[in-house]
Inverse folding.
């Protein structure tokens, strides 16, 4: 029996409210309300409670833990993902995978841990005039979070799916690297995306959140943050709706949270949406703008040998060759990685239907796939998307696909096909409605060169939503300063990936951890320096 | 500022979540939808459209040997977990297809769904897939994802694709 730290914590008296079971309205007061329990909210909760502050965390998703993580896609997507893993951009052209559970996306991510690339930090300093974010300045925060979350090089040999990227690249003289992972005692099973069943993944669920709950933090889950109520330049309370047990519709119970300070960490779609619903001051129309996705292109392949892409650590090999061979503000570059392959996501992603689709699925054990993550946001032709609200207040991201991006899509499909054939692929299938399996690099090259690149034909996905509340050197250019402080609301901060002014060109979790650790420490100092509110 | 009252509330709520953990445990054990599952979201006309479309999308899979009603129940269950705006879209799409003008005019299917030839359904899906109208393309993608996701979530789909299912832990 695997020890379940969440069940144990609940039994020890953690103050957790499952709002879906509230029979009455609930009102709480605290020092700091934190909206969201992912990378930003989790780290903030740990830092603030360590400084002796009282916090209440509010989370839209459920509290689930290793005993619940049964490695079934049918369970995992409805329970642990935003919109049942069917969230899409406004035109439905990009599928967005985001977590919605206690621990946020860290509960379901694939554990890839990268420090912010130097080229990205350099761009932020030189092109965007952001101070204090050099590699040297951030080094201690990265080191601290790496130690906290067990982030270290993964020395177990890659699974075949990942090793194919390494071998193909080696044959073409393309450099690859090994991905560091936030795990301790990983069983190398391969089901990180459905919640870690062994608690090896050092997600917020098993690290910072238990630490905060042990120190008396309170957690309200299955509660949606509707709006901040504002008075002049301050937030005076947060109003939330309890959700039904499926997390689909409000149950009717209301929750009101009052605090000295409010930290927004609802992710790069949720946080801008909350500010929009709250009518927060936004004189320069920056809220929800410049939202980035690392739009991701997929190339599938069939190998002669078994690959078993569902088994083994999901992401362990990467290549930055196609980022590093271009200037960051030139034609769009892309990072290459490998996705885990599980039946539902694979079947939904592959084009076509009927016998053609079934034939592709029949090769599932020999399937290999690569993904190319486009580095958006560094060029005038890549302004990103914008978060807006539907009539019911739910957020939606409009993300226009421009010729600048399509150029990168085509180069990425070519690069991945060439690498896959170099690794010995029998057939390569770009994930595109007009593509068919190609039997040689020459055939693939000619076909990809003439594929029509349009929304809903080329199929794109994203697991990295960033931006929308950009940190900036001045209010005209963003929503918060480099410490995450809202420019117009004195007691509101943003601690999540929505503060990035561009995409990163790398999987974002470690950047969010480090930046949040720094900004939460500064917040703890500011709050400690002020007289406590009456009654504390 | 934690008052005695909030503590009391938390005392009650804490007991609630523990009860939930005990009760919810049984509910959360996955089992594939059965043929006689009570309907959740989809009504009879929605099901009639899906009963014609799903076998064409799943042609060549082991779904032909599975109980069709169970496959439809799986789709119903998947829809029930979607947020309200997506449930609305799916219901609108199915209602449109179930309507005479939708079926004849937009899908180009002459016969009622229950007797529509598979070849006609296949032609309709391909037309929508490559339509120049984004709305029809989006409709195709919705059907594609709903049907394939519901089917491949079921363990009875896995044998034919050589997926052994998750390993044993613990």
């Amino acid at each position: 029996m695997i020890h379940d730290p969440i069940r144990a914590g609940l039994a020890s008296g953690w103050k957790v409210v499952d709002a879906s079971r509230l029979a009455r309205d609930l009102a709480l007061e605290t020092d700091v309300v934190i909206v969201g329990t992912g990378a930003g909210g989790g780290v903030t909760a740990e830092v603030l409670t360590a400084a002796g502050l009282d916090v209440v965390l509010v989370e839209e998703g459920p509290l689930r833990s290793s005993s619940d993580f049964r490695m079934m896609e049918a369970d995992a997507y409805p329970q642990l993902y935003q919109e049942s893993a069917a969230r899409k951009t406004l035109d439905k052209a990009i599928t967005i995978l985001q977590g919605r559970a206690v621990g946020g996306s860290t509960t379901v991510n694939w554990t890839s841990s990268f420090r912010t690339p130097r080229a990205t930090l350099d761009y932020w300093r030189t092109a965007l005039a952001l101070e204090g974010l050099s590699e040297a300045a951030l080094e201690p925060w990265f080191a601290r979070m790496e130690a906290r979350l067990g982030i270290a090089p993964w020395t177990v040999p890659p699974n075949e799916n990942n090793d194919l990227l390494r071998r193909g690249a080696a044959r073409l003289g393309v450099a690859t690297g090994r991905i560091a992972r936030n795990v301790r005692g990983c069983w190398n099973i391969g089901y990180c995306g459905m919640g870690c069943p062994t608690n090896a993944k050092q997600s917020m669920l098993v690290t910072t959140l238990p630490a905060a709950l042990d120190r008396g933090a309170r957690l309200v889950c299955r509660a949606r943050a509707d709006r901040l109520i504002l008075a002049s330049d301050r937030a005076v309370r947060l109003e939330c709706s309890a959700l039904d047990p499926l997390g689909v519709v409000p149950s009717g119970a209301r929750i009101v949270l009052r605090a000295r300070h409010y930290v927004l960490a609802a992710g790069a779609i949720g946080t801008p949406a909350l500010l929009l619903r709250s009518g927060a001051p936004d004189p320069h129309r920056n809220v929800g703008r410049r939202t980035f996705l690392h739009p991701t292109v997929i190339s599938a392949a069939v190998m002669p040998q078994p690959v078993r892409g569902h088994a083994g650590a999901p992401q362990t090999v990467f290549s930055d060759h196609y980022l590093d061979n271009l200037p960051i503000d030139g034609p769009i570059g892309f990072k290459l990685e490998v996705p885990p392959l599980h039946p539902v996501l694979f079947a939904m992603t592959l084009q076509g239907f009927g016998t053609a689709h079934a034939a592709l699925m029949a090769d599932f054990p020999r399937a290999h796939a690569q993904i190319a993550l486009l580095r958006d946001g560094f060029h005038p032709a890549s302004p990103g998307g914008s978060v807006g609200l539907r009539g019911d207040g739910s957020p939606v991201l409009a993300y226009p696909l421009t010729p600048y991006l399509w150029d990168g899509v085509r180069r990425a499909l070519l690069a991945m096909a060439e690498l896959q054939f170099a690794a010995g692929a029998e057939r390569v299938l770009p994930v595109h409605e007009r593509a068919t399996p190609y039997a040689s690099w020459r055939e693939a090259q000619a076909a990809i060169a003439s594929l029509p690149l349009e929304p809903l034909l080329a199929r794109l996905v994203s697991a990295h939503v960033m931006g929308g509340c950009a940190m900036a050197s001045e209010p005209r250019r963003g929503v918060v300063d480099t410490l995450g402080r809202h420019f117009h609301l004195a007691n509101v901060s943003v601690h999540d990936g929505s503060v990035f002014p561009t995409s990163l060109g790398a999987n974002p979790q470690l950047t969010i951890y480090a930046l949040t650790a720094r900004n939460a420490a500064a917040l703890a100092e500011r709050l400690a320096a002020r007289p406590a509110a009456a009654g504390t | 500022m934690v008052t005695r009252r909030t503590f009391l509330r938390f005392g009650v709520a804490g007991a609630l979540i523990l009860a939930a953990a005990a009760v919810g445990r049984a509910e959360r054990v996955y089992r594939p939808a059965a043929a006689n599952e009570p309907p959740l979201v989809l009504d009879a006309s929605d099901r009639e459209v899906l009963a014609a479309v799903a076998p064409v999308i799943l042609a060549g899979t082991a779904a032909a040997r599975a109980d069709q009603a169970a496959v439809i129940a799986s789709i119903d269950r998947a829809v029930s977990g979607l947020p309200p705006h997506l449930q609305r879209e799916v219901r609108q799409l199915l209602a449109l297809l179930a309507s005479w003008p939708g079926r004849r005019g937009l899908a180009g299917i002459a016969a009622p769904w229950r007797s529509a030839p598979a070849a006609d359904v296949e032609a309709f899906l391909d037309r929508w897939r490559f339509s120049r109208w984004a709305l029809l393309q989006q409709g195709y993608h919705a059907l594609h994802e709903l049907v394939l996701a519901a089917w491949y979530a079921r363990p009875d789909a896995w044998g034919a694709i050589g997926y052994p299912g998750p390993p044993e832990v613990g």
Q: What stands out?
A: The CA atoms of residues 3 and 9 of chain B lie 10 Å apart. The radius of gyration of chain B is 21 Å. Chain B has seven helices and no strands.
